[in-house]
Amino acid sequence: MRKMAFLVLVFCTCFGLAAWPQAQPQAKHKIIKFNAPGAGTGSGQGTLGVSIVAGGSIMGTYIDSNSVYHGFLRSPAGKFTKFDPRGSQSTYAESMNSALAITGGYLDTNGVCHGYLRSTAGKFTKFDAPGAGTGSGQGTVATNINSRQEIVGYYIDSNGAYHGFLRTPHGRITTFEAPGAGTGSGQGTWPAGVDGLTDAGTITGTYSDSNNMAHGYLRAPDGSFKTFNVSGSAGTDAAGINWKKTITGEYVDTSGVYHGFVRTPDGTIMSFDAPNAPGGTDPANINAAGAITGYYVDSNGEMHGFVRAPKGSITEFSVSGAGTGSGQGTQPYSNNPEGAITGCYIDSNGVSHGFLRE
Known about the structure:
The protein is mostly beta strands and about 350 residues long. It has a single domain (about 5-355), classed as Methylamine Dehydrogenase, Chain H (7 Propeller), CATH 2.130.10. The chain is built from one helix and 30 strands. Strands 1-23-22-21-20 form a five-stranded mixed β-sheet, with no helix packed on it. Strands 2-27-26-25-24 form a five-stranded mixed β-sheet, with no helix packed on it. Strand 12 and strand 13 form a beta hairpin. It is globular. The two termini are about 30 Å apart.
């Protein structure tokens, strides 16, 4: 599947069908563009808003002129704080809680990834999951943090297989595997990024079986699993969960096109697509109220943002200045409880810029 967590791209290099929705008139939302100080201006460089919490603080990653990744925290007033754990050769910010504690991963000089927790005060705690590989492209990636400072993520072992882990606020790490997860390179278990963990400790994510087929899972706080698939799909990928245990994500059909889905707490799965999305619909995040944001791809390969309301209506939007070519456009990553959205837009030169849609 396309999306397990942001850092995977770095290691490798964001039922019955429901009625098709109609596009809604675009409401007047203020869009603020931003670039982190020090962000590069070349193709593949720039600024990505990754997570937005209640109140409007944004956490993300910027890529400098040397194509090195760094973390940032942007205040509601627009002030930037940049950060890197000591010894980091590239820093990836993955998730932030309401207290502004941040988690993610960083690469050392050997290309091995390690997890980190950045406290509200800016202090770093580094950690590694037991069993994590120590070779280049292996290691530990933290992908989610909740209000209790529980952290979930995945580690890549010496064989290239993925495994989930849960870290308590006191630093104890428990590893886990979804039933049926494969053990070969590129197979295994990983949590969804940004919002794959609830404050109650419920986790959603994806596992890949021995045939490289992706499936969704729900892991309860007691460690029990439920697995799920969209009926008739060629792969199901969970992208996020809210406090009600409503899950969103995407699935790929037999022709290779991606579609969005919503799984309700009782296990019912509904499919959806943005109205102008012949190239696919890719949900990224679901907020407390059940609103979903993500992007869709038009017939030219350009990306556009969307918001799906809890009752199913879809609003499409694009950031002015976004490129109109294939692989360019608007890519939302996260929406907060108030409905504000952050993400990035990619311009005609392939440079990424952050945005806030209020």
